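Run folding on both entries below.
>entry_1
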Amino acid sequence: MNTEETLKKIVREKYGELAMKDSSKNSSCCSPASSSCCGQDADLTVFSEDYSKLEGYNPDADLGLGCGLPTEFARIKAGDTVVDLGSGAGNDCFVARQIAGPSGKVIGVDMTPNMIEKARANATKLKLENVEFRLGEIEFLPVRDEEADVVVSNCVLNLVPNKKQALAEAFRILKKNGHFSISDIITYENIPSGLRDEAALYAGCVSGAMIKENYLQLIENAGFKNIVVQKERKIELPESMLSKYLDQDGVERFRNEFAGIASITVYAEKPCCSNQSPCC
């Protein structure tokens, strides 16, 4: 069984390598507009959606690593402070900044130094002074208590070994009555062992995914209220991906017996009141 630090190391190395690649080459190969992905990064980009029509989109920041469009559902308002968990090259941050405007603030947090470097370079090119990127882990966010109006995240929570701690941190940094919109990968039943135990697929957002009901319960247990699944999209894993980890019989069983995986976007609010404190 992989330890938390081992899994973090795998994720940091894989995403660090991807950050160093030419994003234009990556997008031409693995963009959402394409019907398939090529090369060794296909496992990391198979879930991506098309951002190109959203205002604030910057192709240099789009590495095809998301699984949804959380900023589209995040109810961001002008002047909001938005925190993006696992901000990568800055894709969601730049879209969020377009909505929050010059009076708002966007903070991206990522644990991969190469991603932070790439995101900061992209922000400099765009001359955005109210977007900043901080190096840190989602379980230990470098963000003050109740600093954020909105938290977003795109296909990242499934990469975090300690999801309970990550959600506790999201709760901590949100203002009372603040909210999040998070896109993530879930499953409808337990993943077959041949996929679940494969470390490479942890970085590819598969083996770290939780069963949907358990995922939503974890969010509720963290203290969030008014939890709503804003979007749900079932995903078919390509045979080229499955065959790397399963034999032919395993692939057939996966296709015929496994209920499958999906991308979901979940909205939830931090209440003003708690059982331990009076209402405000």
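>entry_2
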Amino acid sequence: MFDSHFHLTDPRLITLDEVVQKEHQGVEIGADFESLPIVFGFAKEHKNVYCTAGVHPAYADVYSANDFENFVAEHLSQPKFVAIGECGLDYHREDLPTREQQIAVFEHQIFLADRYHKPLVVHTRDAWEDTANVLIANRDKLKNGVLIHCMSYTAEQACFLINQLTGIDVYFAFGGHITYKSKSYLHDTLRSIPLNRILIETDAPYLAPVPKRGEVNLPQYINYTAQVMANVLGKTISEIESLTKENAYRFYKIKAAH
């Protein structure tokens, strides 16, 4: 299974058995500036792991546009560097940076994704309207594709974004939350999205799927998510594996030979 979004360099997972780390394939996501060298080093050391450079909205108040752009420019030659993100908007807690700060940082990373010809990985939590508005307003900078990571919105909202971004390759990734009873509406969301635009992720160590909910999410738990996605779409786990891997390779512009 190609895991489109995880954080294996998180302190809760970095001590994972080396066999697990070597066998897991997918994308290690950069989410804060200070840890980007670790993220890139991890991808370089693991054959089947790629990486992104991004600053999560939780760190928008300490974001340095110059420092981040310099890091991106300096690492463009690294073949494992496949996207900008995760970046976006998160209004879930009151102690997060202001909406104005988050939007400014989000828009700057959209600008960099366009400037350096990288697809964009988007984090959006309790912030659908502003997220959609920012993406639509900047649609001319999304030519390299955009991925809504951990899609947690309705079928209507997914279809709205697809329709508003006609001509843009818009992808949606689903994680362990699709196994939660409280998120059963996501089954309709999944069914509403074209099959060639669906990815699977763990977001490890976050969002462990049922029956592991509440635990630290481990890479191998992706199979629980794949089973639910297979049931919802009327497919086998093998078909979900092939479908989501092909889509991830296309979005991240990864050559199968790698």
